[in-house]
Amino acid sequence: MNRLLLIILLDPDTYIYIGWAVLTLLSLLLAWLFFRRRHSSHLVPRTSHLVPRTSHLVPRTSLFLLALAWAVFLYGTYIGFSQLEVRHIELAFDDLPPSFDGYKIVQFSDVHAGTMTGRRRHLLEEAIDSINAQQADMVVFTGDLQNIVPEEIEPVADLLSSVKARDGVFSVLGNHDYPMYFKGDEFEKYEKMGLRMNIDEQLGWTLLVNERRFIRRGNERIVIGGMDNDGATERFPQNGDVQQTLFGVRLHDFIVMLEHDPTAWRRKILPHSHTQLTLSGHTHGGQVSLFGWTPASITYHESRGLYQAGKRYLYVNSGLGGVVPFRLGTPAEIVVITLRRNEIMKE
């Protein structure tokens, strides 16, 4: 019973149905109250004009709030979730090898494939078209390819496998890529994890689980490292290992680190490595932003966009999808990062 309930709750359309049901019931309730109020007004003596006019503000306020709730729900579900932003940024570093000046990295994150099938498949198709249009040197995916189980990925595998870049596509695992939301027995969870671990290779991607690869241009190189998911609390997998990820990396190497959870940047990556650029996801940018404030900022110090500590950077990607298909003020995001060698060092 608990397993069935969890599957229902993690189905993206469940939240849309709940939204429709709640707002429809509130609308019917408000309509009934208005009808009752209007009907009873005919039974009140004319002296009722002595009743303060402010009594009329209550139903008008209720009507306004209900209309606002409908507008937010419909916009966020059917328009906001369909919006996509391609953001371009340039970052300059003193220690970037000269051969990599102008190197272009495209990052996308948090696809949540179970949300991107059916009538929302075209959203993923448009996103991947935008990724390939950048003609990147490298594409990176920073976790949460699925909602619950790897079988969700199959209907969109053809789209995901079409992502291409000169030096390849690199990926890491997010918390949803683990069977933590799947309520099977231990053997079933082990089986699901095995299936998930094999999917990246089938897509033509390189999955990095506390591993690194070297990208070379002549005699120069940069490091692309991929840490396993490392959440701040026990609610999420805490498997990231900086030392293992960067084994064999030299002190003067330039490192691009992939880590799904942005909290690992301050907890592990900054104090235990010289990583110059870290790319994360996980927060979805809160999926809602009101005047620059997002709910994710309550829990995450770095919740959306670019952050800097000295000459080291973190970019937290807002992702493409989400378990709940709703966005307001926080569109889906692809970020195009161009690495530059600091002008002073060029001279």
Question: Could you explain the architecture of this structure?
Answer:
This protein is α/β, with parallel strands linked by helices and 347 residues long. It folds into 2 domains: 2-78, no CATH class; 85-346, Purple Acid Phosphatase, chain A, domain 2. Helix content is 34%, strand content 19%. The chain contains 10 helices and 12 strands. The strands form 2 sheets. It has a 6-stranded mixed beta sheet with strand order 1-12-2-3-4-5. It has a 6-stranded mixed beta sheet with strand order 6-7-8-9-11-10, covered by helices on one side. Strand 4 (169-171), helix 6 and strand 5 form a beta-alpha-beta unit. Helix 2 runs antiparallel to helix 3. The longest helix has 30 residues, at 12-41.
Concise structural overview:
The chain has helices at residues 2-9, 12-41, 57-78, 121-133, 157-160, 186-203, 242-245, 263-272, 296-299, 343-346; strands at 84-93, 104-108, 138-141, 169-171, 206-207, 211-217, 220-226, 254-258, 277-280, 305-309, 312-316, 332-341.
Structural class computed from helices and strand pairing: alpha/beta
Uncertain stretches of 5 or more adjacent residues: none
Strand ordering within the main sheet: 1-12-2-3-4-5
Please, how many domains?
2
Shape label: elongated
Secondary structure: helix percent: 25-40%
Please provide the ordered H/E string of secondary-structure elements: HHHEEHEHEHEEEHEHEHEEEH
Radius of gyration: 25 Å
Strand content: 15-25%
CATH topology description of the largest domain: Purple Acid Phosphatase, chain A, domain 2
